[in-house]
Amino acid sequence: MSSSLKRCTSYTKYEIRKRNPEPKSCALLVIDVQNHFSSMATPILHNLNTTISLCRRASIPVIFTRHCHKSPSDAGMLEEWWSGDLIVDGTAEAELLEALDRKSSDLVVEKSTYSAFRSTGLEEKLVEMGVKEVIVTGVMTNLCCETTSREAFVRGFRVFFSADATATSDVELHEAALKNLAYGFAYLVDCQRLQHALSGAK
């Protein structure tokens, strides 16, 4: 079992706000579950697919993001930070995991920085769909997932963040992100909570 899948307890003292998603105004964001991140994503794949299934049953739209670069010139500061480890579009590393529960009709948003909102049209699409809340899952907890959640909050979306369908390279980073998000940006959820919250939703 991945260290980021172990039951986290250090964030619970910051989790003083609890709420359930409203299916009629919610969307699920599945962040960057790509071959490049397979070592982190594979251990949480069951929880990811369970979350996707729960949302589909509640008629919550599922939106995937795919991080990629056409060239280093579009990477901005990521080129400086992750030089030599950029995800190049058109390579196998850039593709979403085949085992991911994705339908051909699902929206896939391409992005080139940590936030799924920057220069992607995601906000406009969510507004068009009548979405006011987002559930965030995927990788990496402390980078693209956390940055997307913070920006969603700042843009006026209510944020729900999955503690067991997100992962990163280190359990300490995973828990640190959960602490920050619970403190100021997001309601934390997991598969069990979502199953309870969405049971009977249509």
Helix and strand arrangement:
Elements: E1 26-31, H1 38-41, H2 45-57, E2 62-67, H3 77-81, E3 107-111, H4 122-128, E4 133-139, H5 141-154, E5 158-167, H6 171-184, E6 187-189, H7 191-198
Parallel strand pairs: 1-2, 1-4, 2-3, 4-5, 5-6
Helix pairs in contact: 2-7, 5-6
Question: Can you write the helix and strand succession as a string?
Answer: EHHEHEHEHEHEH
Largest pleated sheet: 6 strands, parallel
C-alpha geometry? globular
Examine the secondary-structure arrangement and name the CATH architecture: 3-Layer(aba) Sandwich
Characterization of this structure:
- It comes from Glycine max.
- This is Isochorismatase-like domain-containing protein.
- Keywords: Hydrolase.
- GO terms for molecular function: nicotinamidase activity.
- Pfam families: Isochorismatase.
- The chain is α/β, with parallel strands linked by helices.
- It has a single domain (22-198), classed as Rossmann fold.
- The chain is built from 7 helices and 6 strands, in the order E-H-H-E-H-E-H-E-H-E-H-E-H.
- It has helices at residues 38-41, 45-57, 77-81, 122-128, 141-154, 171-184, 191-198, and strands at residues 26-31, 62-67, 107-111, 133-139, 158-167, 187-189.
- It has a 6-stranded parallel sheet, sandwiched between helices.
- Helix 5 links the parallel strand 4 and strand 5 (158-167).
- The longest helix is centred in the C-terminal third of the chain and has 14 residues, at 141-154.
- The chain is globular.
- The termini are far apart.
